[in-house]
Amino acid sequence: MAAAHFLALLIPGVDFLLIARSAVSSGWRTASGACLGIALANGIFIAAAFSGLALISHPTLLGLIQTAGGLFLIFIGAAFLRSSARISVINEPAVPSNTWGKNLGLGFASGLLNPKNALFYVALASGLSSAGTGELMLYGAWMFAVVLFWDLFVAVALGSDRALAKLTRFLPWITKAAGGFLVLLGTGMIFTLIVGLVR
């Protein structure tokens, strides 16, 4: 699950573009506000998804959620496999220079208003239904930390157009690898559930 989470972070989305644009226009220090805001929003989704596991006790309901989570991961993985994964902040309209605090708010709103974040963490959480409270807390802390440090790395690395162009060369390969892994993970979740029902 931790590996799937990290691979999914590598694929550019709205959050990635916000960080990249902020870094290019205002520098990585100002963009770090957006990084923290995005991480905090993800932290809310992580806490909600993992806390929800403790509230689900009916095996049928848990099985349905795990099935839906597996199908969602397969869907996202297939989308990654089909994606051309091209990014560009150079040709986009210029972003006005913002303060660190404004970027914090923008990052938080971007992460919180992205429904894919919520669905992704629910899907991952459904695959950890047998984990104990301590293990879930470790997973949650790991995911929050990875989101924050990866976004900070992106902000520092993409402080120039040259760095962004270099990343674009490798992005298609990263996208395909992440897509294949998510498809396998989702398939494995559903297969494990079916095996459990047959026994």
Strand content: under 5%
**Radius of gyration from the CA trace?**
18 Å
The low-confidence parts are 89-95
Number of helices: 8
Q: Structural class of the helices, strands and pairings? A: mainly alpha
Distance between the termini: 24 Å
Specify the helix fraction band: over 70%
Q: Care to count the β-strands?
A: 0
Largest sheet: none
**pLDDT averaged over residues:** 76
Coarse shape: globular
SSE pattern: HHHHHHHH
In a nutshell, what does this entry contain?
This protein is mainly alpha-helical.
Q: Would you kindly provide a written description of the structure presented here, covering whatever features stand out?
A:
With about 200 residues, the chain is an all-alpha fold. It has helices spanning about 1-10, 15-25, 30-55, 60-80, 100-110, 115-125, 135-155, 160-199. It is globular. The protein starts with a helix and ends with a helix.
